[in-house]
Amino acid sequence: MRLYVGLVHYPVYNKNAQVIASAITTLDLHDLARLSKTYDIKEFYVITPLANQQSLAERVRRHWTEGYGAGYNRDRKEAMELIRVVESLTRAATSIKEREGESPLLIATDASKQKERSLSYEAARKIIEGGRAVLLVFGTAWGLEKEVMGKADYILEPICGRTGYRHLSVRTAAAIVLDRLAGR
Amino acid sequence: MRLYVGLVHYPVYNKNAQVIASAITTLDLHDLARLSKTYDIKEFYVITPLANQQSLAERVRRHWTEGYGAGYNRDRKEAMELIRVVESLTRAATSIKEREGESPLLIATDASKQKERSLSYEAARKIIEGGRAVLLVFGTAWGLEKEVMGKADYILEPICGRTGYRHLSVRTAAAIVLDRLAGR
Q1: Overall average pLDDT of the B11-26 stretch
Q2: CATH of region B2-182
Q3: Most CB atoms within 10 A, among A30, A173, B74, B135?
Q4: Could you report the per-residue pLDDT of B154-170, keeping only the tens digit for each?
Q5: Pairing label, strands B19-20, A154-156
Q6: ipTM of the complex, rounded to two decimals
Q7: What distance in Å separates the CA atoms of residue A107 and residue A178, rounded to the nearest whole number?
Q8: Angle at CA A109, nearest 5°, toward A105 and A112?
Q9: Using the beta-carbon criterion (under 8 Å), do B34 and A161 form an inter-chain contact?
Q10: Nearest CA among A179, A184, A31, A183 for reference residue B179
Q11: Residue A131: how many CB atoms within 10 A of its CB?
Q12: SS3 of A53, please?
């Protein structure tokens, strides 16, 4: 399995459908790093073009991988080591290409059902288990901007619960998606 | 489906295996309420015996169901309305009994595999789909205290990812468990 995860802070929408760079939520870094460790994700890309937000993410990573946190909680250290802070989705894809020798297939996630390039969980799982390098991306705030969506090879089906309510946090949505795609 | 969720703040363990009452994490209230709405949970019990922590949870609930938040985000309102703040697990079970006419089956969750009363996801799903009233409980901090575990009818299998790493946040663990037990 050569699965990578990206958490995109730019470009995403705010509540009023304006394109913004969202702030880092440090708790999301912990939750997604721990999920990444659980589901054998190779690297977890924290994507933001803002220098001060990159510094914040790096500082959190260092605290838990080299600083006081590394000794305080060794399990957390293992998870936080998977974090890579990069300025753009393109940079994340390039980094994966350098490592894997092929550009990753880009699978975006969205809370709405897409008409084109929609991918079922079953089909996505087959692609991943087939050994293709895949970058699975999640948007923060009100979701990934449409140009990013346009660049994706596939857009994963939204999470269907029992009620049609589709307003999960990115943390819990990522948990469900990773369990469906990479759980045993 | 008559499924209820409980988030237990006492009695739970701290890092040093001492029994404590953990602090409310307001973000967990949001995440579990949104999951509850997604997976058609009847009520989401926030369990703590500490008066100031009960007040905090009630204040968060009211902000989003009656206060400014109710108008600001109507989707969140629908989710936060599922929150019930109670002082103990016993009180949660009694409340469900009053509503359902039967005591709920108590299913506890744990990050470690149990020797006794262990329940697979498949078996748990069958019980829930069979229509039995069920209270599914999650521990905060370092997990549910052993007396609470002793009272449970069943203990759900731990989440198995791909690596054996079992250190998820309660938010993301609850997401995975609810998707496995109540997802379509």
Answers
A1: 96
A2: 3.40.1280.10
A3: B135
A4: 999 999 899 999 999 99
A5: unpaired
A6: 0.96
A7: 12
A8: 140
A9: no
A10: A179
A11: 9
A12: helix
**Of the ranges A133-137, B41-45, B71-75, which one carries the lowest mean pLDDT score?**
B71-75
Residue B113: the pLDDT is 85
Q: Please name the residue ranges forming H helices in chain B.
A: 26-38, 51-65, 68-72, 74-80, 89-100, 121-129, 146-151, 170-182
Q: Is the pLDDT of residue A115 over 90?
A: no
Cα distances from A72 to residues A65, A80, A146, B91, in angstroms, run: 10, 13, 41, 36
Cβ–Cβ under 8 Å, residues A154 and A119: yes
pLDDT digits (tens, 9 = 90+) for A8-34: 999 999 999 999 999 999 999 999 999
- In CATH, the architecture of A2-50+82-182 is 3-Layer(aba) Sandwich (3.40)
Angle at A46 between CA A45 and CA A47, to 5 degrees: 100
* Extents of the domains making up chain B: 2-182
B12 near A CB under 8 A: no
Q: Which residue type, as a one-letter code, is found at position B165?
A: Y
Does the beta carbon of A175 lie under 8 angstroms from any beta carbon of chain B? yes
Tokens representing residue A5 in the block? 């995860």
Q: Tokens 């929609």 identify what position?
A: A118
Its pTM stands at: 0.97
Q: Are A175 and A34 in contact (CB under 8 A)?
A: no
Tell whether B129 lies on the interface with A, counting CB pairs under 8 A. no
Confidence band for A76, pLDDT divided at 50, 70 and 90: very high
